[in-house]
Specification:
Helix content: 55-70%
Strand content: 5-15%
Radius of gyration: 44 Å
Distance between the termini: 110 Å
Number of domains: 4
Strand order of the largest sheet: 1-4-5
Largest sheet: 3 strands, antiparallel
């Protein structure tokens, strides 16, 4: 890379750095020099000698133009929440319709204008979001509620008649709510709830929230009944209907290795201990339990209440012994298998005798 010193061309005329001018004053002499520019061309400038000497001692490199480095664009993974937020932003930016625009679009829709139908639907999507949020606590994801509400909005747009004097927002709200209520009534319930029951549950929830703000606590069935005009028994029935059934195969909490069935007792089935007890008497079974490892014996006694105590769940036994319920299950199964083998040996001996 060439330097400013190498490019410098000074004229042949030499002069001292200072000379006496008229009146005896000192004046600084300047020299003409060619210096390079960033464009690569030289330029003649006048530089006083002290500055020129200073530049001569400094190796100042002429910078080169550097092409900008294009940074790679990192592709972001798909995020459902981000896509949903973008949808909400787009819906919020859509221009609302004036009453006259609603009338004009409705006339065009009656003639089969698809663009007018699409414009009217887009202008009312924010109404669907607003109504869908009112039903968030009924077990259906908000996005599904919005999709169902959009179906109701489409029906409303197709049936809207401004000549009847109703506003589109008022007319659409009814269709949107009906569509959402039907979806809630049909969503994966063991017993399908009629739409009118879902509607009563919705109003009961609203009344419950209102009373909580006034009373500062959860309202009783009697208080809810007075607010809604129902009997306390009717409120209790609605509460029962609002309970959603859960699958016994569903994971229990964050532990995906355990199921709800693991902690729910089947009242119609015998426990493993009762199955063993059918094959032998209680006293003999207790003697066999005493032959087990002390920890295994203690767990069986605590689990099945062999000492006259009530039976405990795997979770309760695990908390007592400081291990997980899965570990208690493993120890229990090992101990029961040992007991079965001992009982089979006793039965074999009895049969041989």
């Amino acid at each position: 890379m060439k330097t400013l010193k190498q490019h410098k061309k000074v004229t042949k005329k030499q002069a001292s750095s200072t000379e006496l001018g008229r009146g005896g004053r000192k004046i600084t002499l300047k020299r003409r020099a060619e210096v390079p520019t960033l464009s690569g061309r030289s330029k003649v400038v006048e530089i006083d000698e002290p500055t020129l000497e200073q530049l001569s001692k400094t190796e100042t490199s002429v910078p080169r133009e550097v092409a900008p480095v294009e940074q790679p664009v990192e592709r972001q993974p798909y995020d459902g929440n981000t896509a949903f937020n973008l949808y909400l932003r787009e819906v919020g930016q859509t221009k609302l319709l004036t009453p006259q625009e609603e009338v004009d679009l409705a006339k065009r829709i009656k003639k089969g204008d698809k663009k007018a139908r699409e414009q009217m639907i887009k202008a009312n999507l924010r109404l669907v979001v607003k109504i869908a949020r009112e039903y968030e606590d009924y077990g259906m994801p908000l996005l599904d509620l919005i999709n169902e509400g959009n179906m109701g909005l489409m029906k409303a747009v197709e049936r809207f008649d401004p000549a009847k004097g109703a506003k589109l927002s008022t007319y659409s709200a009814w269709w949107i709510k009906q569509s959402i209520k039907r979806a809630l009534a049909n969503q994966s319930k063991t017993i399908r709830l009629p739409v009118h029951v879902v509607d009563k549950l919705f109003h009961m929830r609203q009344a419950s929230v209102k009373l909580q703000e006034v009373l500062g606590r959860e309202p009783t069935d009697e208080e809810l009944g007075d607010e809604l005009g129902f009997s306390a028994q009717k409120v209790a029935q609605l509460r029962t209907a609002a309970i959603r059934p859960a699958s016994l195969e569903a994971p229990l909490g964050d532990d995906e290795t355990s199921r709800i069935a693991d902690v729910v007792r089947d009242e119609t089935a015998d426990t493993p201990y009762e199955q063993l007890e059918e094959k032998t008497n209680t006293s003999m079974l207790r003697e066999l339990v005493a032959t087990l490892d002390p920890r295994e014996a203690e767990i069986l006694r605590y689990r099945f209440g062999l000492d006259g105590d009530p039976e405990r769940t795997l979770e309760e036994v695990g908390q007592k012994f400081g291990v997980t319920r899965e570990r208690i299950r493993q120890i229990q199964n090992v101990a029961l298998n040992k007991l079965r083998k001992q009982i089979e040996k006793l039965e074999t001996v009895k049969a041989a005798a």
